[in-house]
Amino acid sequence: MAGGTDRRTRGPAARAAVTVRVPAKVNVRLAVGAARPDGFHDLANVFLAVSLFDEVTATPADALTVTCEGPDAAEVPLDRTNLAARAAEVLAARAGREPAVHLHIAKRIPVAGGMAGGSADGAAALLACDALWGLDTPRAELLDLCAGLGSDVPFSLVGAAALGTGRGELLTPVDAGTFHWVFAVADGGLSTPAVFREFDRLTAGTDVPEPACGPALLAALAAGDPDALAATLANDLQPAALALRPRLADTLAAGTAAGALAGIVSGSGPTTAFLVRDAAAAAEVAAALAASGTCRATHVASGPVPGATVLP
Ligand code: ATP
Q1: How many angstroms separate the alpha carbon of residue 259 from the centre of ligand 1?
Q2: pTM of the prediction?
Q3: What is the rounded CA–CA span in Å between residue 88 and residue 103?
Q4: Whether residue 253 is found in the same domain as residue 209
Q5: How many CB atoms lie under 10 A from the CB of residue 225?
Q6: pLDDT tens string 264-275
Q7: Which reaction does it catalyse (predicted)?
Q8: Which of 7, 37, 146, 243 sits CB 3.0–4.6 Å from 154 for a disulfide?
């Protein structure tokens, strides 16, 4: 795929098309502080990248265009509000060139599902355009551009497992063994800002503690111990997501009744995440959830997996 025929116009390392594969994330701990004066919340956020992937393909074009395929494609904006398009714009601006690229998103990550699907596409588009345009932007600068696009975007670039602080964008890698998951996709999405507003409403007048992640969770992650991790999974946004979407309680109950070690709302929801002992248990729990009628679809995945990666 290396572009040897068109070097004068696209630079020495430019390519004809670049596809980047990028994972979804689940938060094994999402601790939320009180709203700051700027409206954001300080977070202590332990991310795990899981094997449920979008792919973003960048090809040269006359102008910036976006297309999308997949079961939720109709809900993905194709204009410049798409995070993939915004990523191409910020990278092009930094390089002093036009964002003349076509971005095609093959979408498997649920849309507005609390699994950072838009953020994933933003990180993927950044990496794809960087390779397509032969820019070789230093990793630290790519991470800065990611942080400007959104709090979850830097993690989509680095993947694996990490503790995010600040708005979630200041990342420290953490050790993690492999864990198996089932994800239950709900009908319709939940808006992340709406879930944070509900969190503010539910916690108004209370003393919201500083967000922190305890050592037991980090030890469970490092040990690859699913029982210990199940005992420490926690999401401070879960009461808000359940208040906005009470039927998620039925999905959580169905997953645990089917044998999951623990169930949790993923990020701001409404996807629910079930930690299971192994791949065989994942298949059983996924089948039981599908039969329960409490969700639209299920996905089996494991993690940690690497972040956004250029495919050969
Ligand atoms: P997070 O977990 O980071 O809070 P999310 O997974 O809940 O995010 P997304 O799938 O990122 O939610 O979508 C949130 C909204 O962002 C969508 O409703 C859509 O309007 C918009 N959006 C912009 N770009 C994309 C994209 N590439 N894919 C999906 N949604 C996008």
Answers
A1: 30
A2: 0.92
A3: 9
A4: yes
A5: 14
A6: 999 999 999 999
A7: 4-CDP-2-C-methyl-D-erythritol + ATP = 4-CDP-2-C-methyl-D-erythritol 2-phosphate + ADP + H(+)
A8: 146
